[in-house]
């Protein structure tokens, strides 16, 4: 007769696996499933007039990217908006491109960051100049390297600009190219978006990405802009949203026409610096979001680790009941997560990523640990204004 000792050491391992199984399902259902569930609820056209918008872009040596992407923003199907480009001492042809485009598009305006400006983040100063020069209440931020996938991008964002809303968050990601590096960073960005957009949809917004978001000019002014983190080179998007967002004033727009793309970085170093910048600013987040995210990554690592140990010990000791329970837990969690990721990928036009989800699920705790170790050996002064 096959029996199972509920007080044995291997039974404790099963209990531990069950605990991390429950933690993982809580994250999957409470956070990660919100994207596709929101996308299936079709956003109705706003019952209020579409507000005029000011799109702010800070450029520096963007060259061909600016010439290629800026017309896609200038030709949006939107009744009233302006595009303000702030040139940060570009050594290339940015100025000539802006002059040429301004002749074709009367709603394009451009200015520059004074060369005498020192000891301040150039990106934050450029945004501050653009916001001060803007004529409208709603500010939309993006990058010269970004392009909207649809001429209705601004209309989609405007669906979230209700009278009670001050912040609208949208989805952005890299354009997938061939090769392991491109697949890795696109999946990494996809998963990061599931976290911060899912948390915002759950009523706990904690950050935004400046490639695709909007906020009220009055909110920026009342918070005194980026004054509380001027010592950092970055943070004009995530730290600003972290400081001003709450359950009542933030909305998320998830639709196939609200997506913004940016090219895969040509060098791994560029992406690495972006990740390190994100880790630097993360240490300044208010609230529990950074601990909440760390707990999810830790629980994922522990679940894989303890299920592997339990399976090994149960097979070695011919404890087939334990082996079956453990395998069932792993397969159940795997099937549920893959289903949720699949639905999210379809909602965000990322269905081509699905072959990477299995690899990413297993490796992401290791990648996270690697980044934290790399962060410890960084020269932190490189991320502060000089």
Task: Summarize this entry quickly.
The chain has 386 residues and is of the alpha/beta class. It has helices at 9-32, 34-40, 64-74, 94-104, 122-133, 153-158, 180-201, 217-222, 238-244, 268-282, 289-316, 320-347, 357-376, and strands at residues 53-59, 81-87, 108-112, 138-142, 147-148, 167-169, 172-174, 213-216, 250-252, 260-262. α4 (94-104) links the parallel β2 (81-87) and β3.
Question: How does this model look, in words?
Answer:
The strands form two sheets. The protein has a seven-stranded mixed sheet with strand order 3-2-1-4-8-6-9, with helices on both faces. It has a three-stranded mixed sheet with strand order 5-10-7. It has helices at residues 9-32, 34-40, 64-74, 94-104, 122-133, 153-158, 180-201, 217-222, 238-244, 268-282, 289-316, 320-347, 357-376, and strands at 53-59, 81-87, 108-112, 138-142, 147-148, 167-169, 172-174, 213-216, 250-252, 260-262. By secondary structure, it is α/β, with parallel strands linked by helices. The protein starts with 8 loop residues before the first helix and ends in a 10-residue tail after the last helix. The longest helix is centred in the last third of the chain and has 28 residues, at 289-316. The chain is built from 13 helices and ten strands.
Keywords for this structure?
7-stranded mixed β-sheet; 3-stranded mixed β-sheet; 386 residues; alpha/beta
| Overall radius of gyration | 23 Å
Distance between the termini: 73 Å
Largest sheet: 7 strands, mixed
> Structural class per helix/strand content?
alpha/beta
Q: What is the residue-averaged pLDDT?
A: 89
Beta percentage is 5-15%
Largest sheet: spatial strand order: 3-2-1-4-8-6-9
General form: elongated
Low-confidence stretches: none
| Number of alpha- plus pi-helical segments | 13
Portion of residues within helices: 40-55%
Order of helices and strands: HHEHEHEHEEHEEHEHHEEHHHH
How many beta-strand runs?
A: 10
